[in-house]
Amino acid sequence: MARRSRSHLVFGLLGALAMTAGLLTTASAQEITSQETLSLGRADQLLRQKAFDQAMEELGRLPKEFHEDPLFRGHLGRAAGALYRTARRRTYREGLAPFRGRAAASVRVTHRKQDSGRNSDQTSDNRGWQINERLETTLGREGRINARFLQEADGFKNGHRDLRYRTLLVDFFNGSSHLALGDSASYGSPYFLRGSRLRGADLLLRGETHELQLVAGGYPFWLESRDEYIYPRTVWGFRDKWNLMGERVSLGAGLMQARDSEKIRTIDTANRPRDNVVYSLEQAVRLVPDVWWLKAYEAYSVTDDDLLEERFGNARKLKDTAFRLESDLIQPFLRWRSRYERTGPEFRLLTDIPSGSVVNAKGITADREFIQQYLDLAPLGPLDLDLEASWYRNSLDGRDNVEQTRQRWATVEAGFLVPEGWPKPRVRGTATETLSSPGSATRASQTRTFDVRTDLTHRLGDWSLNGFGTFKAEHPLKDKTAFDEQTSWSAGSQISRPLGKRLYWTSRYEFRFFDEVFDETRIRDHSDEINNNLSVRLWSTASLGLHHSFLRGMLRGTASAKKIEANRHTGSASLSWPYVWTRADKRRRLTIHPSLAYYVSNVTNSLERRPMASGGLRLAYEAYPDWKLELNGNFRWDDDGEADEVRTEESRVWLSFTTLWP
Amino acid sequence: MTFLFLPPAFAQKALRIGSVSYDQHVHSTELIKFTVAVKNNEATTQFAEVDITLTNVETEQELTLVPVLTGNVLAGQESVLVTTYQNIPDGTYTVSFPLFDGDGVRVDRVTGSTPIHIGTETETLQVFPEVIHLGTLPPGRAMFPTPIEVRWAFYRFNRLRLDQPFYIRIYSDNAARYRGVRGALRRNSPAGLVSADGRFAIPLKLWNLNYGPDMQEGGWDAALAGPPPVDDDAFWIGPELLEGGRNLGSANWVRIPDLSEMTSDPVSWRRLIGQDPFDNRYVSDSNQTGDFTLKSPFTLYLAAEAGPTAVEGAYTANLVVELWDP
Asked: Do B13-119 and B122-211+253-324 come out as alike in CATH topology?
């Protein structure tokens, strides 16, 4: 991969997080025979098909001594849990079954207070209140047309009353067919709505062989998270899809138009009202049922990129295509997945932009090509091989003055199947070629990177042993006179084992070497690091973690290398006391769950000492299944005495009430 | 006789700025060159003065560069005024070009389309804390209450002095330790936490301010209320779809992949933040530059679900946070 190796190694020192979740000790597992494997496999398959009754029967065939196996218990938990959920009365927000006259309402009041130093923890600000409200009612009965009403609102934010509807929906449905009026979201096909929210009418008729969708309405979007304006965009479209030959072939076509109101210019003259029409086709073919399927999607878009300019005879029409092909072949000896995607530089899909979503990544990238091949082969003798290759390229037609990133990537992952009880080797090699033109001013615009990782893992009784090695080399393919090759390698080991029933110990050692040029000076040097981690299960769900690391040697920085020698001590404690009281008839339940977490880190040579503490309390009272009252409170304190800007005090409380009628 | 009355917006200005140009990224010690094309629509030569004004994005302090840019523009002609400045304090500045005539009256003003970034090349990444003990996972979903803080600095530019793309991504590196259950038909992903014997895994999810729809759609104002509740499926799995199921792409809590699942396509990565003006994936009506960055430091929260199929044991993970630029 073409990344800056220096930053990577800096992070290798500073950013690698070793985590331990100290659960209870692992239950001893039975060895599995082939018949039992088949039974488990069938149960697994039935679970995937949601045939929970049959899965339970299949699990029941296994001998009793097998019932302690975690895999068996996992499958049993899934099957029994699903059967339980379908059998019991639904409640709260888990979804209302179409019973006559059911209603569920919930109100959540949140208060937050935060006091943080400048530039510290910008995740949130210190504004105070939020109220969320949700009401859902369902009318009708099974087999007939049902109606569902959903309304959500939130307000009292930012110290003033800001109550406006977020979701208002009336949905008439029968089976999987819907007539939705209000705010709804659906995912018709990749070049249709893609899960975006529509405010208007959405008709979806579904049968065994035919699927029809009609949408018409507004498509509200916001330019900022707290924008006081809602920018109108009208949308209408339809999609028709046929399932033929016993669902072995599906053919569909769609049309979608989105048009902005020209009034958005009155809000900001920089806003460009646009008009966009997208014609799309879709095909799905099961060439061999359960073995090989193909899917294809094609689209052609016509976009008027600025409606106002058109008035003056200066229209900017964009016309382009996009398509996507997918294939998946599953055989006992291999799985082969392929994907090819190409989006033209002037292809647009305005309905892909989620209403109000400011930061989530969902836009179709224009001017792009992507190819991926993934081949997972069944073990061939002692060799277990996975092959993967992918390639993506931006700026297909090169119209931009800056060509975009292009990358090729091939990965070979090989495992060697050795007899049971032998150390297990695995090798992963990746070659990456990156072209970034005109490229960074401080690195070659075209590079080839080799990244190799090897592992040897072994389990000896309670001991888990792992030896590893890495090698990385980056070769400039252009600008060779200005940039040099960089190499680095490391080797190390990790050992872990339980110490009794309550302690778990992990130790890791790593030696790193690098060879790189800084300011025309070649540096070859090394560093090594040792980590020891001990996690202790105290009582109930309380636990303690202790960590020590020692680091010394030469470290690569951004533009130089520097020598370091430091000890870091880390301690953390996590305490919680869940208490649940249930009345004899199971219709009343009280939950009290206080928790406390403390973390402190201390580095010897930098005087860095940073403690953090957080606490929480959850109180819940359920009158099952009629109503539920829940109070959640959290507190966090984080203070780095050496850095003024690192300081946060935060508290958050929310109270929610949920009820169900009748 | 015909009188033609033009509204003020269409009246021709005596002096106006045709275009401006400057480098988007400049080293601290480098000369910054500004080029301003001024058009004179008068019948006589006009004096023009451009007071180039920088506004620091962080401190909002204004800085007018002196000596100001001046020149005479011939009647009906366009003149290109050029000047250079040096030793401007490091920072990111928006740029405006107010134009004054010979009487000191402001006659035009243009704002630069991109800010100027003055600084020295840097590329750092720090994560705190580096070792996390998640404690005992209770049944069901649980959020780790202490956030992880990521401090970053990235100042690099390409050979056209435009933004150099970069991403900060996160993944687990567990593939070598994960063995899976022998004889199982389906091989699960090693992403997340892996049990000591390598047979089982518990997926990890994360949330930061970049994930999830905003309050208008999701009803949860993350900037106010912090991490969305993990118990609510709308945030944990995704908002409901009309045809059933949920829109997985709009979930607030997103899965952390394993290195063995990632390809060259950045879509397969879990990007915490990033900037890539050449990738339109983050471009939308509300984010026309595709900016996906958060100021340093930003925080992320981890959560895990110990469901009915979770197996007792000690679980560990190596999580890597990495800064990548092509």
From this structure: yes
Burial of A539 (0-12, 13-18, 19+ CB in 10 A): exposed
Match 């500073």 to its residue by tokens: A14
Cβ pair A267, A273 in contact under 8 A: no
**Spelled out in words, what is the top-level CATH class assigned to the domain A178-378?**
mainly beta
**Torsions phi, psi of B24, nearest 5?**
-80, -30
Which 8-state DSSP code applies to residue A67? G
Residue A340: alpha-carbon gap to chain centroid: 23
Average pLDDT, chain A: 77
The domain B13-119 is placed in CATH, from the list 3.40.50.300, 3.10.450.700, 2.60.40.3880, 3.90.550.10, at: 2.60.40.3880
- ω into A382 cis (within 30 of 0): no
Largest CA distance in chain B: 97
- CA–CA distance, A236 with A258 (Å, rounded to integer): 7
Chain A residue nearest residue B25, CA to CA: A441
Are A22 and B265 a contacting pair at CB < 8 A? no
State the nearest Cα–Cα gap between A327 and chain B, in angstroms.
Answer: 17
Parallel, antiparallel, or unpaired: how do β-strands A210-218 and A463-476 relate?
A: unpaired
- Amino acid, single-letter form, for residue A284: A
Block residue for tokens 């047309």: A145
What residue segments make up the domains of chain B, in order of their start? 13-119, 122-211+253-324
pLDDT in tens, A65-82: 677 777 788 888 888 877
pLDDT, one tens digit per residue, over A17-58 is: 333 333 322 233 344 556 667 777 788 878 877 778 778 877
Token pair 């015909």 is at which residue? B2
Among chain A residues, the shortest Cα distance to B225 is held by A112
| Residue numbers in A near B316 (CB within 8 A) | 18-21, 496, 506
Torsion angle defined by CA atoms of residues A639, A641, A644 and A647, in that order, rounded to the nearest 10 degrees: 0
The ranges assigned to domains in chain A are 28-88, 178-378
Question: Between chains, do A358 and B286 touch, taking CB under 8 Å as contact?
Answer: yes
pTM: 0.81
CA pair distance A84, A152, nearest whole angstrom: 29
- Ranked by mean pLDDT, which of A264-268, A644-648, B45-49 comes out on top? B45-49
Q: Which residues pair with A466 in a beta bridge?
A: A457, A494
The Cα A330–Cα B34 span in angstroms is: 61
Q: At a CB cut-off of 8 Å and minimum separation 6, what does B47 contact?
A: B70, B71, B72, B73, B101, B102
Q: Which CATH architecture has domain B122-211+253-324?
A: Sandwich (2.60)
Residue whose C-alpha is closest to residue A346's, from A312, A320, A383: A320
Among A20, A18, A26, A3, which residue's Cα sits nearest to residue A492? A18
What is the CA angle B21-B25-B31, rounded to 5? 75
Rounded to whole angstroms, the Cα distance separating A100 from A97 reads 9
Reply yes or no on whether the pLDDT at A257 is more than 90. Answer: yes
Closest CA to A656 of A288, A211, A131: A131
For A88-160, where are the alpha helices, taking DSSP H only?
Answer: none
Q: Which residues pair with B275 in a beta bridge?
A: B166
| A-B C-beta contacts closer than 8 Å | 467
Side chain identity, residue A478: K
